[in-house]
C-alpha cells in the first residue's frame, strides 16, 4: 500500500504525451529548486539570527556599561558642583558677616575717634562693670583705642586696680588680688585701632570700691593709665549698693 499511490501517479505521468511530460518535469524541477532555495534561505536566516543574538547582546552590554560610566561621571560632577556651590555660599555668607562686622566696627571706631579727639596714641576709652548677681564678682569690658597717625599694632598687657575703703581705712586692691593667681600676667591685648577686653574681678570681702584704675603696659612706648569713679564705670549704678560683705 505504501507504493501504490506514487506508482499510480508515475504511471499516469508515463501515459502523458512526451511533450507534456517534459513540461511537467520542468515545472516540478522549478518547484523543487524554489523549495530548496527557500529552505536554504530560511536556514541561513535562522543561522544568522542565532549567531547574531550574542553579538548584539554583547554590543548592548558594552553600550550600557559606557552609559553607566557616563552617568556615574555626571553624578560625581553634579555632587562636586553642588558641594562647591555650597562651599561658595558658605564663604559668601561668612564674608557678608565679616563685612557687617567691619561696618559696625567702623561706626563704633568713628564714635571712639570723635569722643577721644583730644587723645593720640594708645588710650583707655572706658571700662564698664556689671555685677554677678549675689556675689562679689564683677564682669568688666574695657575698650582700648589707638589713634596714633600710621598706627602700628599695639601689643601688651592690661591690669586693673581698685581704690576703696576696708575696715574704715583707705585700701587698694591690686590686680593680683582682684584677678587671683590665674590672672597674674594681666590681660593681653593686640590691636591696631581698637579692642575690647573682657574678664572678671573679685572684690575682697568687706571692700567698698570708690575708684577704678586701668593700666596698659605696651611692649613699645610709655605705660598708659586711666582712672574712673566706680559708679561711672558700673553699668547699673545701683549695683554698688549690693556688694556682699
Descriptive report:
It is a single chain. The chain is α+β, with helices and mostly antiparallel strands. The protein folds into two domains: 1-115; 122-242, Sandwich (Immunoglobulin-like), CATH 2.60.40. The protein contains four helices and eight strands; from the N terminus they run H-H-E-E-E-E-H-E-E-E-E-H. It has helices at 4-15, 18-115, 175-179, 230-233, and strands at residues 122-131, 137-146, 154-166, 169-173, 187-191, 194-202, 207-218, 224-229. It is rod-shaped and about 165 Å long. 13% of the residues are buried. The model is unreliable at 239-245 (pLDDT under 50).
**Strand coverage percent:** 25-35%
| Main CATH class of the largest domain | Mainly Beta
How many H/I helices? 4
C-alpha-based Rg, rounded: 52 Å
Overall 3D form: rod-shaped
How many domain modules? 2
Largest sheet: 5 strands, antiparallel
Q: State the order of secondary-structure elements, H for helix, E for strand.
A: HHEEEEHEEEEH
Class by alpha and beta content: alpha+beta
DSSP strand tally: 8
- Percent range of helical residues: 40-55%
CATH topology of the largest domain: Immunoglobulin-like
Oligomer: single chain
Global mean pLDDT: 79
**What is the level-2 CATH architecture name of the largest domain?**
Sandwich
Low-confidence stretches: 239-245
State the separation between the terminal residues, measured CA to CA: 141 Å
Amino acid at each position: 500500500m505504501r507504493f501504490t499511490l506514487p506508482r499510480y501517479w508515475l504511471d499516469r505521468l508515463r501515459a502523458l504525451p512526451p511533450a507534456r511530460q517534459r513540461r511537467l518535469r520542468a515545472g516540478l524541477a522549478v518547484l523543487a529548486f524554489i523549495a530548496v532555495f527557500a529552505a536554504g534561505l530560511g536556514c541561513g536566516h535562522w543561522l544568522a539570527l542565532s549567531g547574531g543574538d550574542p553579538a548584539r547582546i554583547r554590543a548592548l552590554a558594552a553600550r550600557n556599561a559606557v552609559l553607566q560610566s557616563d552617568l556615574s561621571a555626571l553624578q560625581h560632577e553634579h555632587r562636586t558642583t553642588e558641594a562647591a556651590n555650597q562651599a561658595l555660599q558658605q564663604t559668601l555668607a561668612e564674608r557678608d558677616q565679616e563685612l557687617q562686622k567691619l561696618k559696625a566696627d567702623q561706626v563704633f571706631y568713628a564714635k571712639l575717634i570723635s569722643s577721644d579727639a583730644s587723645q593720640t596714641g594708645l588710650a583707655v576709652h572706658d571700662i564698664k562693670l556689671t555685677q554677678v548677681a549675689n556675689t562679689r564678682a564683677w564682669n568688666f569690658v574695657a575698650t582700648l583705642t589707638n589713634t596714633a597717625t600710621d598706627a602700628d599694632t599695639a601689643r601688651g598687657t592690661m591690669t586693673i586696680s581698685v581704690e576703696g575703703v576696708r575696715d574704715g581705712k583707705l585700701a587698694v586692691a591690686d590686680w593680683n588680688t582682684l584677678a587671683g593667681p590665674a590672672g597674674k600676667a594681666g590681660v593681653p591685648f593686640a590691636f591696631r585701632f581698637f579692642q575690647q577686653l573682657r574678664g572678671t574681678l573679685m572684690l575682697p570681702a568687706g571692700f567698698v570700691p570708690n575708684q577704678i584704675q586701668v593700666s596698659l603696659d605696651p611692649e613699645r612706648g610709655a605705660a598708659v593709665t586711666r582712672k574712673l569713679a566706680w559708679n561711672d564705670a558700673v553699668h547699673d549704678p545701683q549695683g554698688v549698693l549690693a556688694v556682699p560683705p
